[in-house]
Amino acid sequence: MVGIVSARFFTSLRAGLLGLAVLSGLTCAAQGPVVETHVLEIDPPTLRRIAVAPFLPSPKFKGDAPIGESSGGEAADAAALTTRFVTEAFAAEGFDMVAAGDLVNVFAVSGKPVPHGEIGPFKRIAKDEYGATALLTGEVYRYKARQGGEFGATRSASVGFTVALHATSDGRELWRARFDKTQPTMSENLLEARRYPGGGARWLTAAELARWGARETAQRLLELK
Questions:
Q1: CB environment 172-181: b (16+ within 10 A), e (fewer)
Q2: Is residue 54 within 8 Å of residue 86, measured between CB atoms?
Q3: Are 160 and 111 in a shared domain?
Q4: Distance separating alpha carbons of residues 3 and 127, to the nearest angstrom
Q5: Residues 25 and 58 in one domain
Q6: What would the pLDDT profile of 73-86 be if each residue is shown by its tens digit?
Q7: What b-and-e string marks burial along 81-115, b requiring 16 or more CB atoms within 10 Å of the CB?
Q8: What's the predicted TM-score (pTM) here?
Q9: Where are the alpha helices (DSSP H) in 93-224?
């Protein structure tokens, strides 16, 4: 009798340990970084003041417009929103920021066109006009709104963008990061869904998703300050 009880006990114990191991593995899998980062060459002095160049939409931008239809305006709006969200998030973490609009105004006052796809002119203005030690650039390649309401959506929001930090002294790239998320449902991945703002209890808008990504991106850089 004792032997039978002992066998049952150890069988239950093994099953319990196996269950914990599986749960632990799922938890670890769900705890991957919200933002992927890569440090190239960075030191605290280069983070003293950060200027922001207007983010650009990727040539492969994916938004809400049907495939084959123009989404130029939609892409530009998504890039502008993401620029603002990232700037605000970095400022909230204590970084001394120079807004993209301030750099653009310098071009406007001088009667020069705002360069697109060129960071050289932005780096010069950031350094010479505002004393910035670094320039933050970005590209938005996906910005899809949810379809439906907060508690009943047929499609979840999906946002993807990259940022890169450059030294204004010599132009070298210092750091880069990528945020790429499509909000999952609870049935798809319970542990992953609970990481999102609201604990997965509601559907986020694309703006909320982008703000979350911006905040997480700022916090990753803050760890290097």
A1: eebbbbbbeb
A2: no
A3: yes
A4: 78
A5: no
A6: 899 999 999 999 99
A7: bbbbbbbbbbeebebebbbbebbeebeeeeeeebe
A8: 0.83
A9: 100-110, 120-130, 190-193, 206-222
